[in-house]
Protein backbone atom coordinates (compact mmCIF):
# COMPACT_ATOMS: atom_id res chain seq x y z
CA UNK A 1 0.00 0.00 0.00
CA UNK A 2 1.79 3.11 -1.24
CA UNK A 3 -0.81 5.77 -0.47
CA UNK A 4 -0.80 5.61 3.34
CA UNK A 5 0.94 7.87 5.89
CA UNK A 6 3.90 6.55 7.83
CA UNK A 7 3.82 7.45 11.51
CA UNK A 8 6.41 8.81 13.85
CA UNK A 9 4.90 9.40 17.28
CA UNK A 10 6.57 11.80 19.66
CA UNK A 11 6.08 11.15 23.39
CA UNK A 12 6.38 14.21 25.60
CA UNK A 13 6.02 13.87 29.37
CA UNK A 14 4.66 16.74 31.45
CA UNK A 15 4.86 17.57 35.14
CA UNK A 16 3.30 20.09 37.49
CA UNK A 17 6.14 21.95 39.22
CA UNK A 18 4.90 21.15 42.73
CA UNK A 19 5.31 17.42 42.01
CA UNK A 20 8.63 15.58 41.74
CA UNK A 21 9.86 15.84 38.14
CA UNK A 22 11.44 12.41 38.57
CA UNK A 23 7.93 10.89 38.55
CA UNK A 24 7.38 11.97 34.95
CA UNK A 25 10.95 11.12 33.91
CA UNK A 26 10.83 7.57 35.24
CA UNK A 27 7.28 6.92 34.15
CA UNK A 28 8.03 8.14 30.62
CA UNK A 29 11.06 5.85 30.52
CA UNK A 30 8.97 2.88 31.67
CA UNK A 31 6.25 3.68 29.14
CA UNK A 32 8.65 3.86 26.21
CA UNK A 33 10.35 0.63 27.26
CA UNK A 34 6.99 -1.13 27.50
CA UNK A 35 5.98 0.12 24.06
CA UNK A 36 9.25 -0.82 22.38
CA UNK A 37 9.25 -4.25 23.96
CA UNK A 38 5.78 -5.05 22.57
CA UNK A 39 5.53 -2.94 19.40
CA UNK A 40 9.10 -2.11 18.36
CA UNK A 41 10.75 1.29 18.15
CA UNK A 42 10.44 2.30 14.50
CA UNK A 43 7.44 4.61 14.91
CA UNK A 44 8.10 6.14 18.32
CA UNK A 45 10.32 8.98 19.56
CA UNK A 46 10.98 9.80 23.21
CA UNK A 47 11.47 13.54 23.63
CA UNK A 48 14.55 13.83 25.86
CA UNK A 49 14.85 17.62 25.91
CA UNK A 50 12.81 18.30 29.00
CA UNK A 51 9.82 17.48 31.09
CA UNK A 52 7.24 20.13 30.28
CA UNK A 53 6.48 22.23 33.37
CA UNK A 54 6.17 25.67 31.76
CA UNK A 55 5.45 27.39 28.46
CA UNK A 56 9.22 27.73 27.87
CA UNK A 57 9.59 23.98 28.26
CA UNK A 58 6.59 23.52 25.98
CA UNK A 59 8.27 25.46 23.17
CA UNK A 60 11.50 23.49 23.61
CA UNK A 61 9.66 20.17 23.45
CA UNK A 62 7.63 21.31 20.45
CA UNK A 63 10.75 22.22 18.50
CA UNK A 64 12.39 18.94 19.45
CA UNK A 65 9.57 16.70 18.20
CA UNK A 66 9.36 18.76 15.01
CA UNK A 67 13.10 18.33 14.39
CA UNK A 68 12.73 14.61 14.98
CA UNK A 69 10.13 14.44 12.19
CA UNK A 70 7.21 13.47 14.43
CA UNK A 71 3.81 13.77 12.78
CA UNK A 72 1.76 12.55 15.78
CA UNK A 73 2.03 13.45 19.45
CA UNK A 74 1.38 11.73 22.76
CA UNK A 75 1.17 14.03 25.77
CA UNK A 76 1.89 11.87 28.82
CA UNK A 77 0.90 13.06 32.28
CA UNK A 78 3.49 11.48 34.54
CA UNK A 79 1.81 13.33 37.39
CA UNK A 80 -0.95 15.92 37.76
CA UNK A 81 0.53 17.95 34.90
CA UNK A 82 0.47 21.66 33.97
CA UNK A 83 -2.88 22.09 32.28
CA UNK A 84 -1.90 25.30 30.45
CA UNK A 85 1.46 24.23 29.05
CA UNK A 86 0.37 20.73 28.12
CA UNK A 87 -2.70 21.90 26.23
CA UNK A 88 -0.73 24.66 24.47
CA UNK A 89 1.65 21.94 23.33
CA UNK A 90 -1.31 20.16 21.76
CA UNK A 91 -2.61 23.40 20.28
CA UNK A 92 0.65 24.29 18.53
CA UNK A 93 1.50 20.78 17.33
CA UNK A 94 0.31 20.41 13.75
CA UNK A 95 -0.94 16.84 13.68
CA UNK A 96 -3.04 14.34 15.63
CA UNK A 97 -2.47 14.26 19.38
CA UNK A 98 -3.37 12.01 22.24
CA UNK A 99 -3.49 12.48 26.02
CA UNK A 100 -2.80 9.63 28.47
CA UNK A 101 -1.76 9.57 32.11
CA UNK A 102 0.12 7.41 34.58
CA UNK A 103 -1.54 5.20 37.18
CA UNK A 104 0.03 4.83 40.62
CA UNK A 105 2.44 1.89 40.79
CA UNK A 106 2.11 0.58 44.34
CA UNK A 107 0.92 1.40 47.84
CA UNK A 108 4.52 2.08 48.84
CA UNK A 109 4.50 5.15 46.59
CA UNK A 110 1.41 6.91 47.88
CA UNK A 111 3.15 9.68 49.82
CA UNK A 112 6.22 11.29 48.26
CA UNK A 113 5.76 9.50 44.92
CA UNK A 114 2.04 9.86 44.36
CA UNK A 115 1.34 11.48 40.98
CA UNK A 116 -2.38 12.33 40.99
CA UNK A 117 -2.55 12.03 37.20
CA UNK A 118 -6.09 10.66 37.46
CA UNK A 119 -7.05 14.10 38.71
CA UNK A 120 -4.80 15.89 36.22
CA UNK A 121 -6.48 14.26 33.23
CA UNK A 122 -9.74 15.99 34.19
CA UNK A 123 -8.04 19.39 34.10
CA UNK A 124 -6.35 18.56 30.81
CA UNK A 125 -9.63 17.60 29.14
CA UNK A 126 -11.31 20.73 30.49
CA UNK A 127 -8.55 22.97 29.16
CA UNK A 128 -8.53 21.27 25.77
CA UNK A 129 -12.24 22.04 25.47
CA UNK A 130 -11.71 25.68 26.48
CA UNK A 131 -9.07 26.10 23.77
CA UNK A 132 -11.06 24.24 21.12
CA UNK A 133 -8.25 21.72 20.66
CA UNK A 134 -9.16 18.28 19.35
CA UNK A 135 -7.24 15.43 20.92
CA UNK A 136 -7.77 11.72 21.25
CA UNK A 137 -8.44 10.60 24.82
CA UNK A 138 -8.91 6.81 24.93
CA UNK A 139 -11.66 4.99 26.79
CA UNK A 140 -9.20 4.21 29.61
CA UNK A 141 -6.77 7.14 29.54
CA UNK A 142 -5.03 6.42 32.86
CA UNK A 143 -3.01 3.24 33.18
CA UNK A 144 0.19 1.38 33.89
CA UNK A 145 3.14 1.60 31.51
CA UNK A 146 1.99 -1.54 29.71
CA UNK A 147 -1.62 -0.35 29.49
CA UNK A 148 -0.60 3.07 28.18
CA UNK A 149 1.65 1.39 25.62
CA UNK A 150 -1.41 -0.48 24.36
CA UNK A 151 -3.38 2.78 24.22
CA UNK A 152 -0.64 4.32 22.04
CA UNK A 153 -0.86 1.33 19.71
CA UNK A 154 -4.62 1.89 19.49
CA UNK A 155 -3.93 5.53 18.58
CA UNK A 156 -1.89 4.61 15.50
CA UNK A 157 -4.73 3.94 13.00
CA UNK A 158 -6.57 7.04 14.24
CA UNK A 159 -3.45 9.16 13.78
CA UNK A 160 -2.84 7.74 10.29
CA UNK A 161 -6.39 8.62 9.26
CA UNK A 162 -6.16 12.20 10.56
CA UNK A 163 -2.78 12.76 8.88
CA UNK A 164 -4.10 11.24 5.68
CA UNK A 165 -7.13 13.53 5.56
CA UNK A 166 -4.96 16.58 6.17
CA UNK A 167 -2.91 15.64 3.11
CA UNK A 168 -5.57 14.15 0.80
CA UNK A 169 -6.75 15.25 -2.61
CA UNK A 170 -9.86 13.68 -4.12
CA UNK A 171 -9.83 13.77 -7.93
CA UNK A 172 -13.23 13.41 -9.57
CA UNK A 173 -14.27 13.07 -13.19
CA UNK A 174 -17.62 14.26 -14.46
CA UNK A 175 -20.91 15.01 -12.73
CA UNK A 176 -22.87 12.23 -11.09
CA UNK A 177 -25.00 10.14 -13.43
CA UNK A 178 -28.66 11.07 -13.76
CA UNK A 179 -30.80 9.92 -10.80
CA UNK A 180 -27.78 9.71 -8.49
CA UNK A 181 -28.61 12.73 -6.36
CA UNK A 182 -28.13 10.51 -3.31
CA UNK A 183 -24.37 10.66 -3.85
CA UNK A 184 -24.36 14.42 -3.37
CA UNK A 185 -21.09 15.99 -2.31
CA UNK A 186 -21.26 19.37 -0.54
CA UNK A 187 -17.70 20.64 -0.80
CA UNK A 188 -17.55 22.79 2.35
CA UNK A 189 -17.14 19.85 4.72
CA UNK A 190 -14.30 18.48 2.60
CA UNK A 191 -12.43 21.72 3.15
CA UNK A 192 -13.35 21.68 6.83
CA UNK A 193 -11.70 18.25 7.07
CA UNK A 194 -8.57 19.53 5.34
CA UNK A 195 -9.30 17.60 2.14
CA UNK A 196 -8.63 19.15 -1.27
CA UNK A 197 -10.96 18.42 -4.18
CA UNK A 198 -10.20 18.60 -7.91
CA UNK A 199 -13.23 18.22 -10.15
CA UNK A 200 -12.67 17.47 -13.82
CA UNK A 201 -14.74 16.89 -16.93
CA UNK A 202 -15.09 13.47 -18.50
CA UNK A 203 -13.78 15.12 -21.67
CA UNK A 204 -10.54 15.98 -19.89
CA UNK A 205 -10.16 12.32 -18.93
CA UNK A 206 -11.05 11.10 -22.41
CA UNK A 207 -8.48 13.44 -23.97
CA UNK A 208 -5.80 12.15 -21.60
CA UNK A 209 -6.81 8.57 -22.40
CA UNK A 210 -6.46 9.18 -26.14
CA UNK A 211 -2.97 10.62 -25.63
CA UNK A 212 -1.93 7.33 -23.97
CA UNK A 213 -2.74 5.31 -27.08
CA UNK A 214 0.31 3.27 -28.01
CA UNK A 215 2.02 3.97 -24.65
CA UNK A 216 5.12 1.78 -24.49
CA UNK A 217 4.20 0.67 -20.96
CA UNK A 218 0.96 -1.02 -22.06
CA UNK A 219 2.38 -4.48 -22.94
CA UNK A 220 4.07 -4.88 -19.54
CA UNK A 221 0.89 -3.83 -17.73
CA UNK A 222 -1.19 -6.24 -19.82
CA UNK A 223 1.18 -9.04 -18.78
CA UNK A 224 0.71 -8.04 -15.14
CA UNK A 225 -3.06 -8.15 -15.56
CA UNK A 226 -2.87 -11.57 -17.23
CA UNK A 227 -0.87 -12.94 -14.30
CA UNK A 228 -3.37 -11.50 -11.80
CA UNK A 229 -6.42 -12.88 -13.61
CA UNK A 230 -4.99 -16.32 -14.38
CA UNK A 231 -7.76 -18.64 -15.53
CA UNK A 232 -10.27 -15.84 -14.90
CA UNK A 233 -8.95 -13.93 -17.95
CA UNK A 234 -12.09 -14.47 -20.03
CA UNK A 235 -11.86 -11.21 -22.01
CA UNK A 236 -8.18 -10.96 -23.07
CA UNK A 237 -8.94 -8.63 -25.97
CA UNK A 238 -9.99 -5.80 -23.68
CA UNK A 239 -6.83 -5.80 -21.54
CA UNK A 240 -4.77 -3.39 -23.70
CA UNK A 241 -7.46 -0.71 -23.44
CA UNK A 242 -7.83 -1.29 -19.70
CA UNK A 243 -4.05 -0.99 -19.33
CA UNK A 244 -4.15 2.24 -21.32
CA UNK A 245 -6.82 3.57 -18.96
CA UNK A 246 -4.92 2.53 -15.83
CA UNK A 247 -1.81 4.33 -17.07
CA UNK A 248 -3.96 7.39 -17.78
CA UNK A 249 -5.21 7.48 -14.19
CA UNK A 250 -1.78 6.79 -12.69
CA UNK A 251 -0.20 9.61 -14.67
CA UNK A 252 -3.09 11.94 -13.86
CA UNK A 253 -2.57 11.27 -10.15
CA UNK A 254 1.14 12.07 -10.34
CA UNK A 255 0.63 15.18 -12.47
CA UNK A 256 -2.27 16.56 -10.41
CA UNK A 257 -1.32 15.57 -6.87
CA UNK A 258 0.19 19.01 -6.37
CA UNK A 259 1.15 19.73 -2.77
CA UNK A 260 -0.84 16.76 -1.45
CA UNK A 261 0.70 13.45 -0.45
CA UNK A 262 -2.29 11.14 -0.86
CA UNK A 263 -4.99 10.72 -3.48
CA UNK A 264 -8.40 9.09 -3.91
CA UNK A 265 -10.45 9.07 -7.12
CA UNK A 266 -14.18 9.46 -7.68
CA UNK A 267 -14.58 8.01 -11.17
CA UNK A 268 -17.25 8.11 -13.85
CA UNK A 269 -18.37 4.79 -15.29
CA UNK A 270 -21.69 5.46 -17.08
CA UNK A 271 -23.84 6.35 -19.00
CA UNK A 272 -21.56 7.59 -21.81
CA UNK A 273 -18.29 6.15 -20.51
CA UNK A 274 -18.64 2.69 -21.99
CA UNK A 275 -19.79 3.88 -25.41
CA UNK A 276 -16.92 6.36 -25.77
CA UNK A 277 -14.06 4.56 -24.05
CA UNK A 278 -15.25 1.17 -25.30
CA UNK A 279 -15.20 -0.63 -21.95
CA UNK A 280 -16.20 -0.23 -18.30
CA UNK A 281 -13.50 0.79 -15.79
CA UNK A 282 -14.41 -1.59 -12.96
CA UNK A 283 -11.32 -3.83 -13.16
CA UNK A 284 -8.96 -0.85 -13.24
CA UNK A 285 -10.80 0.62 -10.25
CA UNK A 286 -10.27 -2.66 -8.40
CA UNK A 287 -6.56 -2.73 -9.21
CA UNK A 288 -5.88 0.83 -8.06
CA UNK A 289 -7.91 0.30 -4.88
CA UNK A 290 -5.85 -2.84 -4.22
CA UNK A 291 -2.71 -0.72 -4.52
CA UNK A 292 -3.97 1.75 -1.90
CA UNK A 293 -5.50 4.37 -4.21
CA UNK A 294 -9.25 4.05 -3.60
CA UNK A 295 -11.51 4.60 -6.60
CA UNK A 296 -15.23 5.05 -6.04
CA UNK A 297 -17.88 4.42 -8.68
CA UNK A 298 -20.41 6.88 -10.09
CA UNK A 299 -18.49 9.99 -8.99
CA UNK A 300 -19.23 9.26 -5.34
CA UNK A 301 -16.88 11.77 -3.71
CA UNK A 302 -17.79 10.92 -0.11
CA UNK A 303 -17.60 7.26 -1.05
CA UNK A 304 -13.99 7.80 -2.15
CA UNK A 305 -13.34 9.70 1.08
CA UNK A 306 -14.80 6.84 3.13
CA UNK A 307 -12.75 4.27 1.23
CA UNK A 308 -9.57 6.24 1.89
CA UNK A 309 -10.26 6.40 5.63
CA UNK A 310 -10.83 2.64 5.73
CA UNK A 311 -7.68 1.98 3.70
CA UNK A 312 -5.57 4.02 6.09
CA UNK A 313 -7.15 2.54 9.22
CA UNK A 314 -6.97 -1.09 8.06
CA UNK A 315 -3.78 -0.75 5.99
CA UNK A 316 -5.50 -2.99 3.50
CA UNK A 317 -7.68 -2.79 0.40
CA UNK A 318 -11.33 -1.84 0.90
CA UNK A 319 -14.27 -1.79 -1.47
CA UNK A 320 -17.39 0.25 -2.17
CA UNK A 321 -20.65 -1.65 -2.58
CA UNK A 322 -24.34 -1.04 -3.01
CA UNK A 323 -26.42 -2.10 -0.02
CA UNK A 324 -28.21 -3.88 -2.75
CA UNK A 325 -30.78 -6.62 -2.36
CA UNK A 326 -32.38 -9.03 0.05
CA UNK A 327 -31.41 -12.68 0.25
CA UNK A 328 -34.21 -14.80 -1.26
CA UNK A 329 -36.06 -16.90 1.30
CA UNK A 330 -35.23 -20.19 -0.43
CA UNK A 331 -31.51 -19.37 -0.29
CA UNK A 332 -31.79 -18.19 3.31
CA UNK A 333 -33.62 -21.33 4.41
CA UNK A 334 -31.36 -23.73 2.53
CA UNK A 335 -27.94 -22.23 3.32
CA UNK A 336 -28.17 -19.81 6.24
CA UNK A 337 -31.02 -20.46 8.67
CA UNK A 338 -29.76 -23.81 9.97
CA UNK A 339 -26.07 -22.97 9.86
CA UNK A 340 -25.80 -19.43 11.27
CA UNK A 341 -27.45 -17.49 14.06
CA UNK A 342 -28.92 -14.78 11.82
CA UNK A 343 -32.51 -13.79 11.15
CA UNK A 344 -33.60 -13.34 7.55
CA UNK A 345 -33.46 -9.54 7.85
CA UNK A 346 -29.95 -9.68 9.33
CA UNK A 347 -28.59 -10.72 5.93
CA UNK A 348 -28.42 -8.89 2.61
CA UNK A 349 -26.34 -8.80 -0.54
CA UNK A 350 -23.64 -6.18 -1.02
CA UNK A 351 -22.92 -5.72 -4.71
CA UNK A 352 -21.16 -3.64 -7.30
CA UNK A 353 -20.49 -4.24 -10.94
CA UNK A 354 -16.90 -5.46 -10.59
CA UNK A 355 -14.79 -3.00 -8.60
CA UNK A 356 -13.48 -5.19 -5.76
CA UNK A 357 -9.77 -6.07 -5.65
CA UNK A 358 -8.99 -9.64 -6.73
CA UNK A 359 -7.35 -10.27 -3.34
CA UNK A 360 -10.78 -9.79 -1.73
CA UNK A 361 -12.63 -12.23 -3.97
CA UNK A 362 -12.88 -15.96 -3.35
CA UNK A 363 -12.74 -16.46 -7.12
CA UNK A 364 -12.87 -14.02 -10.02
CA UNK A 365 -13.36 -13.70 -13.76
CA UNK A 366 -13.12 -10.84 -16.19
CA UNK A 367 -16.61 -10.43 -17.67
CA UNK A 368 -19.02 -7.86 -19.10
CA UNK A 369 -21.44 -5.60 -17.23
CA UNK A 370 -24.75 -7.46 -17.38
CA UNK A 371 -27.02 -4.53 -16.46
CA UNK A 372 -25.51 -2.19 -19.06
CA UNK A 373 -25.51 -4.94 -21.70
CA UNK A 374 -29.30 -5.03 -21.52
CA UNK A 375 -29.38 -1.76 -23.51
CA UNK A 376 -25.91 -1.60 -25.11
CA UNK A 377 -23.73 -3.87 -27.25
CA UNK A 378 -22.04 -6.37 -24.96
CA UNK A 379 -18.56 -5.63 -26.33
CA UNK A 380 -18.69 -2.06 -25.00
CA UNK A 381 -19.46 -3.24 -21.44
CA UNK A 382 -16.47 -5.51 -20.90
CA UNK A 383 -14.14 -4.84 -17.97
CA UNK A 384 -15.84 -6.03 -14.79
CA UNK A 385 -14.10 -8.26 -12.26
CA UNK A 386 -16.76 -10.64 -11.02
CA UNK A 387 -16.77 -13.09 -8.15
CA UNK A 388 -18.00 -13.76 -4.62
CA UNK A 389 -16.36 -11.71 -1.87
CA UNK A 390 -14.17 -13.69 0.50
CA UNK A 391 -15.86 -14.84 3.72
CA UNK A 392 -14.77 -13.24 6.96
CA UNK A 393 -15.20 -10.26 9.25
CA UNK A 394 -16.12 -6.91 7.71
CA UNK A 395 -17.03 -3.38 8.75
CA UNK A 396 -19.66 -1.56 6.67
CA UNK A 397 -19.35 2.21 7.13
CA UNK A 398 -19.65 5.62 5.49
CA UNK A 399 -18.85 9.27 6.17
CA UNK A 400 -21.20 11.71 4.46
CA UNK A 401 -22.02 15.41 4.37
CA UNK A 402 -25.74 16.01 4.30
CA UNK A 403 -27.40 18.34 1.82
CA UNK A 404 -27.46 21.02 4.53
CA UNK A 405 -23.73 20.57 5.12
CA UNK A 406 -23.59 18.49 8.30
CA UNK A 407 -21.24 15.58 8.84
CA UNK A 408 -22.88 12.24 9.50
CA UNK A 409 -21.56 8.67 9.59
CA UNK A 410 -22.47 5.08 10.28
CA UNK A 411 -20.54 1.96 11.28
CA UNK A 412 -21.76 -1.64 11.44
CA UNK A 413 -19.62 -4.70 12.06
CA UNK A 414 -20.54 -8.09 10.68
CA UNK A 415 -19.26 -10.75 8.33
CA UNK A 416 -19.43 -12.09 4.80
CA UNK A 417 -20.89 -15.59 4.94
CA UNK A 418 -19.25 -18.50 3.08
CA UNK A 419 -22.39 -18.98 0.99
CA UNK A 420 -22.45 -18.87 -2.81
CA UNK A 421 -24.42 -15.89 -4.10
CA UNK A 422 -25.53 -17.40 -7.43
CA UNK A 423 -25.37 -13.89 -8.84
CA UNK A 424 -23.11 -11.54 -10.81
CA UNK A 425 -20.70 -8.68 -10.13
CA UNK A 426 -18.46 -8.27 -7.11
CA UNK A 427 -20.91 -9.54 -4.54
CA UNK A 428 -21.26 -11.21 -1.16
CA UNK A 429 -23.88 -12.27 1.36
CA UNK A 430 -23.38 -9.97 4.33
CA UNK A 431 -24.63 -10.65 7.83
CA UNK A 432 -24.95 -7.80 10.34
CA UNK A 433 -26.78 -8.34 13.64
CA UNK A 434 -30.11 -6.45 13.68
CA UNK A 435 -29.49 -5.22 10.13
CA UNK A 436 -33.19 -4.77 9.39
CA UNK A 437 -33.63 -2.23 12.19
CA UNK A 438 -30.30 -0.56 11.38
CA UNK A 439 -31.34 -0.27 7.72
CA UNK A 440 -34.61 1.45 8.62
CA UNK A 441 -33.60 3.67 11.53
CA UNK A 442 -30.09 4.69 10.47
CA UNK A 443 -29.62 4.23 6.73
CA UNK A 444 -33.14 5.21 5.65
CA UNK A 445 -33.97 7.57 8.50
CA UNK A 446 -30.70 9.51 8.19
CA UNK A 447 -30.86 9.67 4.37
CA UNK A 448 -27.64 7.82 3.60
CA UNK A 449 -26.97 6.91 -0.04
CA UNK A 450 -26.93 3.34 -1.27
CA UNK A 451 -23.13 3.13 -1.45
CA UNK A 452 -21.28 1.86 1.62
CA UNK A 453 -17.58 1.31 2.14
CA UNK A 454 -16.38 -2.10 3.31
CA UNK A 455 -13.22 -2.73 5.32
CA UNK A 456 -12.11 -6.33 5.66
CA UNK A 457 -11.97 -6.90 9.40
CA UNK A 458 -13.59 -5.40 12.47
CA UNK A 459 -12.56 -1.74 12.68
CA UNK A 460 -15.61 -0.22 14.33
CA UNK A 461 -13.70 1.05 17.35
CA UNK A 462 -11.04 2.75 15.25
CA UNK A 463 -13.52 4.29 12.81
CA UNK A 464 -15.70 5.57 15.65
CA UNK A 465 -12.70 7.37 17.17
CA UNK A 466 -11.63 8.77 13.78
CA UNK A 467 -15.10 10.16 13.14
CA UNK A 468 -15.21 11.71 16.61
CA UNK A 469 -11.74 13.23 16.18
CA UNK A 470 -12.52 14.89 12.85
CA UNK A 471 -15.68 16.47 14.21
CA UNK A 472 -18.64 14.21 13.50
CA UNK A 473 -21.07 14.71 16.41
CA UNK A 474 -21.35 11.50 18.42
CA UNK A 475 -25.12 11.53 18.05
CA UNK A 476 -24.63 11.55 14.27
CA UNK A 477 -22.56 8.33 14.23
CA UNK A 478 -25.10 5.58 13.68
CA UNK A 479 -24.48 1.93 14.47
CA UNK A 480 -26.53 -1.26 14.63
CA UNK A 481 -28.23 -1.18 18.02
CA UNK A 482 -28.47 -4.58 19.74
CA UNK A 483 -31.86 -6.18 20.23
CA UNK A 484 -33.74 -4.51 23.06
CA UNK A 485 -32.09 -1.10 22.58
CA UNK A 486 -34.56 1.18 20.82
CA UNK A 487 -33.65 3.71 18.14
CA UNK A 488 -35.14 7.20 18.78
CA UNK A 489 -37.37 6.84 15.72
CA UNK A 490 -38.37 3.23 16.44
CA UNK A 491 -41.99 2.69 17.40
CA UNK A 492 -41.98 1.41 21.01
CA UNK A 493 -45.13 -0.65 20.31
CA UNK A 494 -43.69 -2.36 17.26
TrEMBL record:
UniProt key word Isomerase: yes
Pfam families in UniProt: Fucose_iso_C
Listed SUPFAM superfamilies: FucI/AraA N-terminal and middle domains
Biological process annotations from GO: fucose metabolic process
GO CC annotations on file: cytoplasm
InterPro entries associated with the record: Fuc_isomerase_C, Fucose_isomerase_N/cen_sf
GO MF, any single term: L-fucose isomerase activity
Keywords noted in UniProt: Carbohydrate metabolism, Isomerase
L-fucose isomerase C-terminal domain location: 351-476
Keyword Isomerase appears in the UniProt entry: yes
Protein name as it appears in the record: L-fucose/L-arabinose isomerase family protein
Species name: Candidatus Egerieimonas intestinavium
Amino acid sequence: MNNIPELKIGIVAVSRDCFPESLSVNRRKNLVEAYREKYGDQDIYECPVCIVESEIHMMQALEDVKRAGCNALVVYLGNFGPEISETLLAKYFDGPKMFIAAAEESREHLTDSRGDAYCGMLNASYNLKLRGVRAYIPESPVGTAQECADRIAEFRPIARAVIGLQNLKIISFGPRPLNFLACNAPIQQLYNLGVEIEENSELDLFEAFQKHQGDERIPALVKEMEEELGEGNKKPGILPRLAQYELTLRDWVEEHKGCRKYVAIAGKCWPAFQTQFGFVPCYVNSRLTGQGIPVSCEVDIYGALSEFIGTVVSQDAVTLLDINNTVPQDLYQAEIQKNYNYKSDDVFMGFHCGNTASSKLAFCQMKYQLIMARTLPEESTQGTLEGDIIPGDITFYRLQSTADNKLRAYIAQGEVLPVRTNSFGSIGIFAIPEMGRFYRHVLVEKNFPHHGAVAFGHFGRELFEVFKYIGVPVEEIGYNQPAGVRYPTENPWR
